[in-house]
Write a structure and sequence with these properties.
Blueprint: H1 6-23, E1 26-30, H2 41-57, E2 61-65, H3 67-72, E3 79-82, H4 87-98, E4 102-104, H5 107-112, H6 115-124, E5 132-136, H7 142-148, E6 153-157, E7 168-171, H8 174-186, E8 191-196, E9 201-208, E10 214-217, H9 243-257, E11 261-268, E12 274-281, H10 289-308
Parallel strand pairs: 1-2, 1-3, 3-4
Antiparallel strand pairs: 5-8, 6-7, 6-8, 9-10, 9-11, 11-12
Helix pairs in contact: 2-10, 7-8
C-alpha cells in the first residue's frame, strides 16, 4: 500500500490542475519569412524556437506555421504568436484580432513599426526622435532639406519594413539625398522618411513590455551588424546613459506603437539626450536570446490567460 501525505497530495492536485489549465492554451506560432530576416534568418528562427520551447515547458501547445502556411489555411487557435511581416500576413493578423483572437505582437503594432507610421506616432506622442521629413519619392527635396537645415541624413523607405540594405541610405548632402530618393522611386518605393543624422553613441536595445527584461549594448563595439550602418557613428564614446530614462522612453514607444516584444536603436547625444532612431517588432534578440526567451514566454502566457479568462 502506498501512503500519500496531505501536503504532497495537495501539491500533486495543484500541479495537475495547473497543467490541465495550461494545456487548454493552444497557440499558433507564425514564423518570419526569410525575405524579412535579411542577414538574420538563423537568429530570428532561434529566438522564435526558444520562445515556443519555453511556452511548451509551461504547458502550452504551440503549433508552428510558416508565413506561407499561415496565409493559406484557417487558424483555429485562440492565440497567435506572430513574428511575420508580409503584407498579406499582417492583414490576416488584423482580421484575426478583430474577430476576437489574441495576437502578439498585434498585427496593428507590426504595421505601426513601418517607417512612416512609426515616425508619425513617435513624433505625435512626444517620444524623442530625430527631426524628420516625410516625402514622396518623386519629389524634388533639395530645397526642403536646405530649408530644414539637413546636411547629413538618413533616407528610409516609408511604406513598409526594410528588406534590403538599400532600403536605408546614409547621405552627406542634399544633392546625394535627391539621387538616392530617385533610386527609391525607380525601385517602386513611393514614400520615404528622411531623418537628420544625429552625432553620438549608437545604442541597441531589446525589451519585453510589462516585464523586468531590458537589454542594451553598443552594437559597433560588439561587432553586431545587419547592414554595416553602425560604422557611420563608429565606436562609442562612453557617454553617460540614464538607463531608467532609456527604458522609460522605450516602454512608452512600445505602448504607443502597440507592441509587446520589441527592440531598436537610439542615439545618445554628447549631452546625454536620448532619441530613438529605429523601433522594431520582435527583432532577433541575438546577443541575449537565452535570457530573453523566458521573459517573452511569460509575457505571452500572461496575456493569453487574461484573454481566455484563466
Amino acid at each position: 500500500m502506498q501512503f500519500v501525505t496531505l501536503g504532497s497530495y495537495a501539491h500533486d492536485i495543484t500541479f495537475i490542475y495547473k497543467h490541465i489549465i495550461m494545456a487548454d492554451i493552444t497557440i499558433a506560432g507564425v514564423m518570419r519569412a526569410g525575405a524579412y530576416s535579411p542577414n538574420h534568418i538563423g537568429n530570428d528562427t532561434a529566438i522564435f524556437n526558444l520562445v515556443a520551447e519555453q511556452l511548451r515547458k509551461r504547458g502550452c501547445q504551440v503549433n508552428v506555421y510558416s508565413e506561407e502556411q499561415f496565409n493559406k489555411q484557417e487558424i483555429e487557435e485562440p492565440v497567435v504568436l506572430a513574428m511575420c511581416r508580409e503584407r498579406e500576413s499582417i492583414a490576416k493578423l488584423q482580421r484575426l484580432e478583430d474577430a476576437g483572437k489574441l495576437v502578439v505582437n498585434s498585427g496593428y503594432g507590426i504595421e505601426n513599426c513601418t517607417r512612416e507610421r512609426m515616425t508619425r506616432i513617435l513624433l505625435g506622442n512626444g517620444i524623442p526622435y530625430p527631426e524628420s521629413l516625410i516625402v514622396n519619392t518623386n519629389e524634388n527635396i533639395k530645397g526642403q532639406l536646405k530649408k530644414a537645415g539637413f546636411k547629413s541624413c538618413w533616407i528610409k523607405r516609408g511604406d513598409f519594413h526594410a528588406m534590403h540594405k538599400e532600403d536605408v541610405s546614409y547621405v552627406r548632402h542634399p544633392e546625394e539625398a535627391q539621387e538616392v530618393l530617385q533610386e527609391y522611386f525607380y525601385r517602386g518605393i513611393t514614400r520615404a522618411v528622411i531623418n537628420v543624422h544625429l552625432v553620438g553613441d549608437l545604442v541597441k536595445f531589446y525589451g519585453v513590455k510589462d516585464s523586468q527584461f531590458f537589454y542594451w549594448f553598443y552594437p559597433f563595439d560588439e561587432g553586431h551588424s545587419k547592414y554595416g550602418w553602425e560604422e557611420v557613428n563608429g565606436h562609442s564614446q562612453g557617454i553617460d546613459i540614464d538607463l531608467k530614462e532609456l527604458k522609460d522612453i522605450c516602454t512608452k514607444a512600445a505602448e504607443e506603437l502597440n507592441v509587446v516584444i520589441y527592440g531598436g536603436d537610439c542615439i545618445v547625444d554628447p549631452d546625454g539626450t536620448i532619441r530613438i532612431i529605429d523601433f522594431n517588432d520582435w527583432p532577433s534578440f541575438a546577443p541575449c536570446r537565452n535570457e530573453s526567451a523566458p521573459h517573452i514566454a511569460k509575457a505571452v502566457l500572461a496575456l493569453a490567460k487574461a484573454h481566455m479568462g484563466l
